[in-house]
Amino acid sequence: MALSEFDLIDRFFRHCGASRADVRLGVGDDAALLACPPGEVLAAAVDTLVEGVHFPPGSPAESIGHRALAVNLSDLAAMGARPAWALLALTLPSADATWLSAFTAGFAALAEAHAVTLVGGDTTHGPLTVTVTILGHVAATDALRRSGAAPGDALFVSGTPGDAAAGLALEQGRLQGVEGAQQLRDRFLFPTPRVALGERLRAYASGCIDVSDGLVADALKLARASGCGVEIAATALPLSGPLRTLGLKRARDFALTGGDDYELCFTVPLERVARLQAELPCEQWGYTRIGTVSAESGVRVRDEEGALTVSSEGYDHFVSG
Ligand code: ADP
Ligand code: MG
Q: Which run of H or E residues covers position 282?
């Protein structure tokens, strides 16, 4: 059933996500009015998902709603900021109530889990494109940045990188016969933004970035912003059970170069590592030490033979093996 634009907004977007006292005016006027906590600065990020570019055509609507918010929450997590408000610019080929119900269910469940509320947006007609702007806040002096890493710092990653890329390959039929395939698909369809970890890391991390383009590519961005390089021990990479069924070499390739994980890659000065591990136990918080920040620029990956794979270009030019 086709809906008018007003009905569509009223039905699906007027009340979406958590309710928050700091929203002085939400959906319905020309702009939202929001109260930022005193002494904190706004953290703002925007990301667009285009059908056929960022997700396969015909992806489940619930996953599209979840991912559109998750990729933005992940950006705030990487800054150590607390998310609060979201805006949604939605371009739809048709106003299909069934699709919109599933889309908003995916968006709203994640929004509620992070106490985020939808405060405005835009709805237009055209090829399926979802743009979410996320707003949050953080004490200015506490925010995590890409630029704070120094040679000698320990390098960590959360979760099990590579799973989402393998999941996408499964979704697209480029990969078959994997045990635990659904677990990998779910890592692509429903990534977990590490918001609580990001907030806690403000007390320990010197640098932080979220992994969207691949571990090597994003570690390189962090390293460049900090004026240094990183060394990754391939043997230390946390590989999930299902990813391991692909064999060690392919599993490592996915972990090093696969995108869409939305995990955090962060650095911690050596003198703070013991405190990090005591106060945020890695079994509970799900992160792993994978290497060290180096004075030499670029990313070096060392395997058990000690062989080095060097990348100074990131994902596009990364040659493995
Ligand atoms: P305007 O023409 O002033 O931009 P619209 O008629 O486009 O306003 O939107 C009416 C209200 O609905 C505004 O408050 C806008 O923020 C909100 N809105 C429109 N589309 C969405 C959406 N997809 N999600 C959330 N809010 C939306
Ligand atoms: Mg207006």
A: helix 282-285
Query: What confidence tens digit (pLDDT) does each residue in 191-204 have?
Result: 999 999 999 999 99
**Nearest residue (CA) to ligand 1, atom 13:** 28
> pLDDT of 158-170, one tens digit each?
999 999 999 999 9
Going by C-beta distance under 8 Å and a sequence separation of 6 or more, which residues neighbour residue 290?
Answer: 155, 156, 157, 232, 233, 236, 237, 238
C-beta 99 within 6 A of ligand 1: no
Q: Is the CB of 26 under 6 A from ligand 1?
A: no
In this model, does residue 321 exceed pLDDT 80? no
CA distance 264 to 196: 11
- Domains, the chain, in order of start with CATH, read 5-138 (3.30.1330.10), 146-308 (3.90.650.10)
255: Cβ below 6 Å to ligand 1? no
- Kindly state if the Cβ of 83 falls inside 6 Å of ligand 1: no
The pLDDT value given to residue 317: 40
Cα 117 to middle of ligand 2, angstroms:
20
- Name the closest ligand to CA 121: 1
